[in-house]
Write a structure and sequence with these properties.
- With 270 residues, this protein is α+β, with helices and mostly antiparallel strands.
- 35% of the residues lie in helices and 19% in strands.
- The longest helix has 20 residues, at 155-174.
Length: 270
């Protein structure tokens, strides 16, 4: 999938052309995005969120809602069963985030990329290795994203709610009145980032994976590579942010999960 090949599906669940969604033009002039039906099916969640006094209150309300709807009680969080009791594992968005933190190319990463493909229409460009639609890498990705290990407990719907909560929290508390966040990504090479256009020595348009990690702290990005990519990320492409919940698996590195496509980046070199 170079710059001339199809970047994703012709349809998605956000009502914006996938080609436009993946373009630098969209990143510069973003439109509001909502996943079809999520707000309409969960009015009680957003009514409850409106009563929150701050982001911590909102995060607690969101977590309690997820526990109630999906049974994400502490007893099923990766603990062994009580003696003589067998529990059925329930997939949770927190488990996917934890797996992503260990390895974005693991099974949990495949499920997250599969969700982006399903909702936003974007194909992944990398999963363990560069992907083309006829490659073994594509087959491996499809097998992992469809694994029954994580496809229970309405896992895609959990991620839908996470995205919509993130967008609500950004607009209400974390970045009111803003359209973009300045985020950073440290890399040692561009194996995962396909060059679309070179504008000058430092600026280029590259194709990010369908879901990619960034940090809000430049000094943390330094730890992950000797080339630092600075990107103006539209808020509507932020799936999850370090600010979102009081406790979560990605808390320590200021990590943000961002929907990919073609981004204008400014590279600096250590």
């Amino acid at each position: 999938m170079d710059g001339t090949e199809q970047i994703g599906h012709s349809t998605n669940l956000v009502g914006v052309s996938t080609v436009l969604l993946a373009s630098p033009t969209f990143n510069e002039h973003p439109q509001v995005l909502h996943i079809s039906g999520v707000l309409e099916m969960n009015p009680s969640l957003f009514e409850m969120l409106e009563e929150a006094e701050d982001l911590a209150d909102a995060g607690e309300a969101f977590y309690k809602y997820m526990v109630a709807i999906f049974g994400l009680d502490p007893e099923q969080h990766e603990k062994g069963p009580h003696k003589g009791v067998v529990r059925r594992f329930r997939s949770s968005f927190l488990r996917l985030l934890k797996g992503w933190g260990y390895d974005s190319n693991g099974p949990e990463g495949a499920v997250l990329k599969g969700w982006v493909e399903s909702r936003f229409g974007l194909f992944p460009t990398f999963h363990k290795e560069p992907i083309s639609l006829k490659s073994q890498a594509w087959i491996s990705y499809v097998e992992e994203k469809m694994s029954s290990r994580f496809h229970n407990n309405s896992i895609y719907f959990q991620l839908d709610l996470l995205y919509e909560f993130c967008q609500w929290a950004l607009a209400r508390f974390a970045a009111p009145g803003r359209t973009h966040l300045t985020l950073y990504r440290g890399v040692n090479d561009f194996d995962e980032h396909r060059l679309i256009r070179q504008l000058d020595k430092r600026r280029r348009v590259i194709r990010m994976n369908s879901l990619a990690s960034f940090t809000c702290h430049r000094d943390i990005a330094d730890c992950f590579g000797d080339t630092i990519l600075e990107v103006q990320v539209p808020l509507v492409k932020v799936v999850f942010g370090n600010f979102l919940l009081p406790t979560h698996p990605l808390k320590g590195e200021g990590e943000h999960l961002v929907i990919g496509g073609d981004f204008l980046v400014t590279a600096s070199y250590l």
